[in-house]
Design brief:
DNA-binding; Endonuclease III, domain 1; Endonuclease Iii, domain 2; 216 residues; mainly alpha
Length: 216
DNA sequence: ATCCCGAGGG
DNA sequence: CCCTCTGGAT
């Protein structure tokens, strides 16, 4: 599978990486957190919710439940009320309680720093695990494929897949591991600021010259 | 009406 | 593969 098409894709990937790096030299996670525990909780809450909204509820949440041990013993109704405005609050409360209980039972109350242990936690999939491993520990285990990364990867012609794990495999094959963490943050930032789902601002997009405008 | 840093279940 | 879960913003 190293034909002409593959070379073209790699060249496209390198151009995307260069343009994003020039546009967002210091892109980083915009969820507020002070520890791996807080980042994991914030990331679980970020499903189908803006990070601005997540950052509105986490100060009170972390004050009330400062670590996994405290969260494991939380009253469900109180927890649901604290996170209600982030949406999917029943599912998220179930995930947070289950996650915290497993962290206490199997990891001594500390958030584990490896992919298998993280994805074994209730409510934690590859996207969330990649965020925590990459942002909290600088471990390049993969590319964070959320709604923005999915959309931009398709529009930029980096993948034709729809499934998040298949998209991640394509991106991992196209970009060097050393670029995965920053690339994730930059794609997400560009998706929020410029390449929005409904009305992409192609007129002020720094990637317009290399974008095939798939789906636009 | 559509989208937001998804995951679990059928 | 599909569906469901949810509130808030646009």
């Amino acid at each position: 599978m190293t034909g002409h098409h593959n070379q073209e894709l790699r060249a496209r990937a390198a151009a995307v990486d260069a343009a994003l790096t020039a546009t967002y030299p210091a892109a980083t996670c915009e969820l507020s957190y002070r520890s791996p525990y807080e980042l994991l909780v914030a990331t679980i809450l970020s499903a189908q919710c803006t990070d601005v909204r997540v950052n509105m509820v986490t100060p009170a949440l972390f004050a009330r439940f400062p670590d996994a041990t405290a969260l494991a013993g939380a009253d469900r109704a109180e927890l649901e009320e604290l996170i209600r405005s982030t949406g999917f609050f029943r599912n998220k409360a179930t995930s947070l309680l289950g996650m915290a209980q497993v962290v206490v039972e199997r990891h001594g109350g500390q958030i584990p720093a490896d992919m298998d242990a993280l994805t074994a936690l209730p409510g934690v999939g590859r996207k969330t695990a990649n965020v925590v491993l990459g942002t909290a520990w600088g471990l390049a285990t993969g590319v964070v494929v959320d709604t923005h990364v999915s959309r931009l990867s398709q529009r930029l012609g980096l993948t034709r897949e729809r499934n998040a794990e298949k998209i991640e495999r394509d991106l991992m094959a196209l970009f060097p591991p050393s670029s995965w963490i920053d690339l994730s943050h930059r794609l997400i930032l560009h998706g929020r600021r410029v390449c929005q789902a409904r009305k992409p601002a192609c007129d002020r997009c720094s990637l317009a010259a290399i974008c095939p405008r798939i789906g636009v």
